[in-house]
Amino acid sequence: MSGRFFNVVLDDAARMPGITGICAGFELGSWRVKQLATVLFRSLPDFCLQYSEREAINFDNAMERVAAAARTIYQTEKFKSRGEFGELVLHVALKELFNTIPAISKIFFKDSVNNTVKGFDAVHVVPTHSGLQLWLGEVKFYQDINAAIDDVCSELDAHFEREYLRNEFLLLERKIDSAWPHAEKLRALMDENVSLDKVFEAVCVPVLLTYNSPVTGVHTQYSEQYVHAMTTELEKHYAKFKSKNNLTNVHVRLILLPLQEKKLLVEELHKKLEAAQCL
């Protein structure tokens, strides 16, 4: 499938922190929740599998790999409260909006059934003329934007303490697929002998927050009126995030994704994942 799915309502990389506001849009008078769920579902193998596994997908085993990916992300009845859906949204948004390349699959490295590995919610890279830009993502797949902002800012403070970062890099280094083309460059960047000051020059922290949006809830088409009202809503939430964000030594990029209703997206994803396990 080609072409961008998300509508970009607001985008300003020059701000500190940067801001990107996106939405799923509308079709025939309805919020595109089914289409969004389909876009996310199609990214399951890319999200759940390691590089070597993705490269091994072919005509004969494609359905089997999709089913395996579905079973990996959906192994509990408590799907409504799990964070994997948010991580999947972040994964897709980063690839589509910023052309990032997934470096490590967190879902692949669950430490036990239904217990996801702690740490950053996405580890992606963008090749540059001087090496790699490392994208360490955080996501809050919430209904309440205020709770999302409060919780993610506390998490950012904790995740960029020196001790936490060094331990996280040590764990991530061990999980890099040696067959992945950028493996050695990423290992070199995360090496304990490289100063974090140097690492931070190559780090971007995308922070994706979802929430139930009053503006999305009362509109039925992507119109000038919608864009104007949504821009006002996004700017309000950006201002609150900026006032609470203490992370200033790395580049932070806030990504806001207003939903008509989170529950609707969860239900659509649940249907697709449940069906896929039977493939």
Percentage of residues assigned to helices = 40-55%
Please give the largest β-sheet. 7 strands, mixed
Strand content: 15-25%
Radius of gyration, whole Å:
18 Å
Describe this structure in a few short sentences.
The protein contains twelve helices and nine strands.
Commentary on this structure:
The chain has one domain (7-276). 47% of the residues lie in helices and 20% in strands. It is built from twelve helices and nine strands. It has a seven-stranded mixed sheet, with helices on both faces. The protein has a two-stranded antiparallel sheet with strand order 3-4.
List keywords for this structure.
279 residues; alpha/beta; two-stranded antiparallel sheet; 9 strands; globular
Draw up the topology in text.
Blueprint lengths: L6 E6 L5 E6 L2 E2 L2 E2 L1 H10 L1 H5 L2 H5 L6 H12 L10 H15 L2 E4 L17 E7 L2 E11 L3 H15 L2 H14 L7 H8 L5 H5 L2 E10 L1 H5 L5 H21 L6 E9 L2 H15 L3
Parallel strand pairs: 2-9, 7-8, 8-9
Antiparallel strand pairs: 1-2, 3-4, 5-6, 6-7
Helix pairs in contact: 1-12, 6-11
